[in-house]
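Internal QA ticket QA-208
Title: Verify multi-chain structure generation after dependency bump
Assignee: T.L.

Test input:
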Amino acid sequence: MTPERVLFAFVIVLALTLNVGFTVGDISNPEQHNRYELFGAIVVSLVATVMKFGDRSPLGSTMLATSLVADLQLIAAAACWGLYAGFGNTLSGGQMATVVSLAIGALVANVISVVLLVIEVANLRR
Amino acid sequence: MNRASHGSFILLRRLRMPLVVLIGVYAASVLGFTLVPGTTPDGAPWRMSFLHAFYFVSFLGTTIGLGEIPYPFSDAQRLWATASIYATVVAWLYSIGALFGVLQDPLFRRISHETGVARKVRGLREPFYLLCGYDDTGYRVARELTEDGTRVVVLDIDPARVDGADVDDHVVHVPGLVGDASDPTALTIAGLTHPQCAAVIALTGSDTINTKVALTARLLNRDLPVICVARDHVWHPRLAAAGADHIINPFDTFAERVAIAIRTPSLHVIYEALTTQAGTAAAAATQVPRGRWVLCGWGPFARSLRRQLLALQIEVLVVGLDLDDSCDTKDCLRGDPTDSAVLRRADVEHADAVIAGTSVDIDNLAIVLAARKLNKRLFIIARQTKRRNAAVFRAAPADLVMQSSYVVAAEVLRDLRAPLLSAFLRRARDEDEAWAAALLQRLRDSVGSDVLESWSVSIDPVSMPAAHEALVAGESVALGRLLTRVDGSLRALRAVPLMLLRGREHVAVPALDHLIESGDKLLFCGRALARTRMRGMALSRSLAPQAAVSAAATGPLPAEG
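Actual output:
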């Protein structure tokens, strides 16, 4: 166990948990989705991407790819939110659904990341 | 993992921390702006949206300007903005510093240098020569080859010399790799296993490394011709075992030339005319005396010369400080040859020739000057080791200057450009003076004082289509028909056939009525115009008729052609 590996796993799992926390709830109800949680999810996801830079493990390149997908989806969700709310408006149900569905896409990518992490750890055990 | 992805791996891994710091500082600043309370101009409480906060922090960190938007800030917001300015500027400085740090890193630079050269070498689509070692010899070889339009790749361990390959402005770009020629990886990056690699030439200053290059080339690329320099005879068997196609020993080559000049002066003239640029057959023979020789300095160079001279039954006295057991006392004198007292003891006043053959240029110049002072009639040979001393040696009163790098470069170039010429010269060494004098006279008659060129022709459908067709049709073709003009005058070309190669059989100076066969390789020498005319005959697919040859061959020398 090295501090580096702990931090690595921590960041990847945190990216997943924040993402889940944001998406849980009624997909079209703005009341049930916290913007700070989305912001946190984006920041942690970016950090997770950077942590995977130059990872030498065989799964490293796949993990970097899934992480980049998550970044892309989350940033798209945040950009949509920013544009819809641009004039001080509250979001309509359909607009909120767009934002959350983009975040759900990112969630899938984050789940794959965590699965890959578990596979890698399981391989190390052997 | 290959070395290229290794380079980007290092870059990304070293930039991990700076990027995390940058993301963290930005995230904290943006978050802070969305939380810190402010007021609109109307006095209503207001908090920045994420979009505005990200926009503000973005220009804050990079330019610090544009003012407070969309509304003037509250004191709390200004406090946070001040903290953010310092944090983001420091984070940027740190990140950019780290980026430059990685780019300057010796390991990263070496890997990116190797990647760049590997890409250039992979991109070569024409045959190229791989040159290991880029000192004086390598420079000469590279310059001559690039002047022919041939591609060359240079491998040398000294970065300064590889940079020299860029600075020396060759006609075509010469990719240079800094690397150890005895390292197979470096050789592979430089193109050893590239399908277009035409030959590997090992010219490094160390015989050990040259042998390693030959071995590596033999094992990694079986059919690749290898040309190798070895100064010490110890390495010759090992190089032969490694399968080096040509082993060049500059000392043996030079010693042989001296021996040829003594034994067969006419052959020496032919040799010089054929091997030096702008050489002519009309040059007078160098008069190298037999008599008694004094050989100053001891080493592989002196050993080669002594062996050649003794074979000609010439009396040789070796003068040197570091004599070994192979010198017996009666023809050796222990002493510093740069000292005129020692030279006087060697009886230089009554010697016929002196060789200044130590491995130090200054010593050799001192010997030349001291010996010339003692005896005005001496024939003096000086050995020059560094190219940059050329001017001094030209000014020194020596009759012949031996420069190792020049000798090696000439041998390498001849092996590459005219392999038949090397075979001819090897063959001619065994002939006597009468044979050489007759050939020289023939060259003088037919080429005169024009610059002597040599070229090879093979009897195949590409380079000699007309002759090849005639042979395929069952006609017998005499050699003279290739040397007869086809413009109606039927005069002979001013060229002399030097050698005919059929399979493994060599015929030196074949007669004009010698019948050629398909697949023969021929070596001609003559004036440049004759070469052009012969090429014209090949292009126009024409051949002189059989009847014309006997008249042209036996008739008087034509005025031109």
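Spot checks passed. Chain B has four domains: 3-104, 124-248, 254-417, 419-554.
Status: verified.
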